[in-house]
Amino acid sequence: MPNAELQRSLAFIFLRKGKEYLTEKEIVYSASMDLRWFSPKDAQRLLDIGLREKLLERRDGSVRLGFDPKALELPLDFRPTKAALEEPAELRNPFVEVLERLSAARGLARKAIVSKINHKQEALAIDAEVAALLIARELDVDVSDLYDRVESELRARML
User: Fold this and answer.
1) Domain containing residue 55: CATH number
2) Which of 87, 99, 122, 125 matches a 20 to 30 Å C-alpha distance to 4?
3) What percent of the chain stands above pLDDT 70?
4) How many domains does the chain have?
């Protein structure tokens, strides 16, 4: 199920511009500078998440909505919250997810965790994601729900 806040935000931008197609720059500029909803970095995230969630479609150098914006109720003073920038767990990078869980569970700085992962990766000549899973196991942090996502990502990389 798509992020409703993200969907409404993207619909508002397109309806406000009155165009079916926008460039990526127009979307980012509109969300950051025109509407002052987000910083340019967060506005870029809004675009990226919209593309990953298939709420936006790329066509010939432009972007269009992958849904009917008129089906949504949008007040004239619509302003999204940070919830528009939340990615569904299944779209998040599993490596980052492992890092965050290790950091939260063991109180370690991300830099220290990455260092441990890099050392394990070099010592065993394995992918960083696999090294991260091994470090999680060594530190007794359950990340077993991420095994399938890591496997899928590694398989996709090999294609």
Assistant:
1) 1.10.10
2) 99
3) 96
4) 2
